[in-house]
Amino acid sequence: MEHRSLGFAIFVHVAALGVALTVLAPLGWLFVMSVSSPADLSAKPLHWWPDSIDLSRYRQLLTPETGAAFLASLRNSIEVAAMATLGALLVGIPAGWAASRNPKLGWTLGAVIATYMLPPVALSVPLYLILAKLGLLNNVFGLALVYLSILAPFVTWLLKAGFDPIPRDLEQAAAIDGANLWQLLRIVILPLALPVVATALIFAFLLAWDEFFYGLLFTSNQDAKTLSVAIADLAGGRVSDYGLIATAGVIAALPPVAVGLLMQRALISGLTNGGVKG
Amino acid sequence: MFTDRLTLRAWVLMLPLLVVMLAVIGWPLADTVRLSFTDARLVGTGGAFVGVENYTGMLGSRNFRKALVATLTFSVWSVAAELCLGVLVGLLLNQRFYGRALLRALMILPWALPTVVNATLWRLIYNPEYGALNAALTQLGLADSYQSWLGQPGTAMGALIVADVWKNFPLVALIALAALQAVPRDIQAAATSDGANAWQRFRHVTLPYLVGPLMVALVLRTIEAFKVFDLIWIMTRGGPANSTRSLSLLVYQEAFAFQRAGSGASLALVITLIITVLAGAYLALMRRAAGQGG
After folding, report:
1. Chain B contact for A41, CB < 8 A?
2. Nearest C-alpha in A relative to B120
3. Best mutation site among B9, B14, B202 for testing chain A: the one with the most A CBs within 10 Å?
4. How many beta-carbon pairs below 8 A join chains A and B?
5. Residues in domain ABC transmembrane type-1 (chain B) (predicted)?
């Protein structure tokens, strides 16, 4: 960096432009497809830019009369992700805190994190059989329960890493002052840990939002089918309007993309710690 | 006494997580092991014990070997490309240029895009009749006619790998960038004044800082790639002629489409074993990286 020649500077800028285009072109095309008329999308040569902006698919998917199935999947995705996230936080907060304060319990957490490497196919058959027995197939509660197998280890690990830097003196002082566990948690720990918990909550929600395999296996209709399964159905089905598929994709991508851009800093520090799920 | 009470309290706090883990992971995994030694069907009567028949039958089958090769091909090429591209772009992002913060923010986008949306998007791009890739290639004069990128055995796997690399190289680039920013400037400067050229500086000053984080990225990405299901399911369903059918897809077909739960379970455990070896390598590398003191 000491001897930056003009040639090198030009090279860097050209390369940066190339990377930016590589990243943006497919995303931009997804958006263009969603607002192009069907005629534009099937034209040869292809119309890269629509003659007029066509927002009819957004209207079609988001109004109850024409988009009932899509809206149901949207609602199911939100419900399942919210329930699974809440459940994961309920078990993850106490466990993450305990593991953070007691290094002796580190191995338990290690075992929990190791499960994160398991391929879902290794659990899918028994999970299917037990959900069938409990009458929880094609049910948002059943799916949320299954999602705990992904979310709970992830959230606990994230929370433990977040709790570690919170100084222990405070809770020791509070304990000496006679605070009980609940007071300790409510007055001392949680206010300090709130940003960590919020980060874990958002990532857990997005992880559930992204999930496809269990959703495909364990849901079959509007009662529980999630957004990712609904989009796969659209993509694999006989929908002749590709713009409609693209529109569903744009809507599904909005929450995680917005979060990703707003939370860049937390995200990058999470990445450097070695593994927010890719 | 006090420490014992603290430990007891810690265990009590740990308990809900352990119960949940046992219910949704521990028990299903144990039951998969049991099923793998039976001829159980997905629906109907519980199967009878058949010993290691599922394992020998599955491991000896052409389908398994073909799926293993497809999975390895996908994993090795995707991860290699993601690492190479990731390091190069990480080095680029570590330079000074106009719009650097913007480009770094853009790198978040493919990572944030849901896997299913990514797969759907690329399926549309590769579309044989109206896809953007065919249109771009013919309009630029690089191709004479439209091709079925996902429909011919020669291009389907490559098309899948491109879609996976596009989504995941930015993650590696951000990890590489974070590692590069930890390289002390004065060491760089000292190496320069000692007459080290750009390659020597990269090899002896920069690379040691990159190795640890990249090892982590390497093994995490390999594990993810080895489990691949969503991308292939949506883009090719394993076709054409099963040339892109990964191991996870094979389990899905065996256990759920053909309802052979026992044989599907045995295959799932073989995949688990392979991934466990990878995960073991991950932990060993982590430990060695930690031992070197970062």
Report:
1. yes
2. A235
3. B14
4. 285
5. 68-284
Buried residues in A122-139 as b, exposed as e (16+ CB within 10 A): bbbbbbbbbbeeeebbbb
More confident residue, B213 or A273: B213
How high is the ipTM of this complex? 0.91
Q: How far is B80 from chain A (nearest CA, A)?
A: 16
Taking a contact as any Cβ pair under 8 Å apart, which residues of chain A between 206 and 235 contact chain B?
A: 206, 209-210, 212-213, 216-217, 228, 231-232, 234-235
Percent of chain A with pLDDT over 90: 60
Residue type, B39: D
Question: Which chain B residues have a beta carbon less than 8 Å from that of A181?
Answer: 9
* Burial environment of residue A4 by CB neighbours within 10 A (0 to 12, 13 to 18, 19 or more): exposed
pLDDT-derived band at B294 (thresholds 50, 70, 90) equals: very low
- Whether chain A has a CB inside 8 Å of the CB on B159: the answer is no
B220 near A CB under 8 A = yes
**Confidence grade of residue A274 (pLDDT, cut at 50, 70, 90):** very low
CB B250 within 8 A of CB B242: no
Task: Name the residue with tokens 């995707």.
Answer: B78
Query: What's the rounded Cα separation, in Å, for the pair B10 and A99?
Result: 7
For B25-82, write each residue's pLDDT tens digit.
999 999 999 999 999 998 876 788 998 999 999 888 999 999 999 999 999 999 999 9
DSSP class of B23: I
Q: Under an 8 A CB cutoff, do B29 and A123 touch?
A: yes
- pLDDT class for A32, splitting at 50, 70, 90? very high
Residue A108 has pLDDT above 90, yes or no: no
How close does chain B come to A92, measured CA to CA in Å? 6
Instruction: List the single residue in B with minimal CA-CA distance to A38.
Output: B130
Taken in order of first residue, the domains within chain B and their CATH numbers are: 56-291 (1.10.3720.10)
- Using a CB-CB distance cutoff of 8 angstroms, which residues of chain B are in contact with residue A259? 112
Tens digit of each residue's pLDDT (9 = 90 or more) over A180-222: 878 877 787 778 888 889 989 999 999 999 999 999 999 999 9
